[in-house]
Write a structure and sequence with these properties.
Blueprint (H helix, E strand, L loop, with lengths): L1 H18 L9 H7 L6 H21 L4 H4 L6
């Protein structure tokens, strides 16, 4: 299951990087404002920031290891 989710995630990243419509990243003024954190719209910066947090939280929830496979977290 983890491999399937990883392949799906990589497919989405490849689509966004290579085939997504729009201007190239270097010539898009909105993208440049977001990356340099110079946007004049506060809500846009908030949404852009949360777009990085939500996938990380979902990955932690979906890909967590069962307790019986983890082992001890305290070094001996």
């Amino acid at each position: 299951m983890k491999w399937i989710l990883g392949i799906i995630w990589l497919a989405f990243v490849a689509y966004a990087w290579v085939w997504a419509p729009g201007k190239p990243l270097g010539s898009d003024p909105v993208f440049k404002e977001l990356i340099t954190l110079q946007s004049k719209e506060a809500w846009l910066m908030t949404v852009f920031s949360w777009l990085g947090i939500f996938p990380a939280v979902f990955a932690c929830l979906l890909l967590k290891t069962p307790a019986n496979e983890r082992g001890s977290r305290i070094p001996v």
